[in-house]
Write a structure and sequence with these properties.
Largest sheet: 6 strands, mixed
Helix content: 25-40%
Number of helices: 9
């Protein structure tokens, strides 16, 4: 497939243009030329030396990630930025990035993947940021305890014993899901914003959620959750954001391209 065609298909499917004014990430083709052919695509959560090297070892023509290397523009190509750009350029690997578009996509997104694992139905967009959303909210099939949901979250890639954990030695052990448990004993309505999503706690409360699932939190979340009477699950930034790139991998295979996945849990 032509690189330009692959990039166009991803941009169209993810609605990349809608996030241009609200996302600090330079989404879409971030490094490389859109000329030439693509036969094999690698997928990873983060663009870093380790994942770029793994993509090169796999013979990939492109690397698709959630977290790229350009946030708010690049003024100087030096240091780590230079090293990453050089590694991609030397191997002629195009870097495609989808940050917020891949968080909030109703089918392919990170929040959608987490919601599917928890078993949320009747889902609706959640997590407003400007004119778009980056999460989802839905209902459990039957009431669940905080311990039950935590057990599900602890099975994610990047959590101790979770799927894919240990495939790559990241040099950092994962921490189990932390639960700030101030909600009802029976949880039915759950909001999901992956990564760093505790800024949407008030929106979750206003939407009638019993719990908010995210990756990491800020220090004030304890008191905010306690005073609001809601449970917050902190399952890890990496662990909650593997679902989007996995979905794009499956989609890319449907388009007839070869793929490889780079698991590199950060423990965070």
């Amino acid at each position: 497939m032509e690189r330009s065609e692959y990039v166009r298909r991803l941009d169209d499917r993810l609605g990349t243009a809608a996030y241009a004014d609200v996302d600090a990430s330079a989404n879409g083709l971030q490094v490389g030329s859109d000329e030439g052919e693509i036969e094999r695509v690698a997928f990873a959560v983060d663009a870093a030396d380790a994942t770029i090297e793994a993509a090169a070892d796999a013979g990939a023509d492109a690397l698709v990630v959630h977290h790229g290397i350009s946030w708010g523009g690049i003024e100087r190509v030096t240091g780590r930025t230079y090293d990453r750009v050089e590694a991609l350029a030397e191997r002629d690997i195009a870097l495609y990035v989808s940050h917020l578009p891949l968080d909030g996509h109703p089918d392919l997104g990170n929040a959608a993947g987490v919601a599917e694992e928890i078993g949320l139905g009747d889902r609706a967009p959640f997590g407003e940021i400007g004119p778009v959303t980056i999460g989802t909210i839905g209902e459990t099939e039957s009431p669940r305890s905080a311990a039950s949901i935590r057990e599900t979250l602890d099975g994610f890639e990047g959590q101790p014993g979770g799927e894919g954990d240990g495939e790559v030695d990241s040099g950092s052990g994962a921490s189990p899901t932390r639960v700030v448990d101030f909600g009802p004993d029976e949880i039915e309505r759950v909001a999901v914003v992956t990564g760093s999503g505790t800024d949407w706690l008030d929106e979750a409360v206003e939407a009638g959620a019993d719990a908010l699932v995210t990756g990491e939190g800020k220090g004030r979340v304890y008191h905010d959750a306690r005073e609001a009477g809601i449970t917050v699950f902190l399952a890890g930034h990496y662990a909650t954001e593997t679902f989007g790139v996995r979905s794009l991998q499956a989609l890319t295979e449907e388009w007839g391209l070869e793929t490889t996945y780079v698991s590199h849990p950060t423990g965070l």
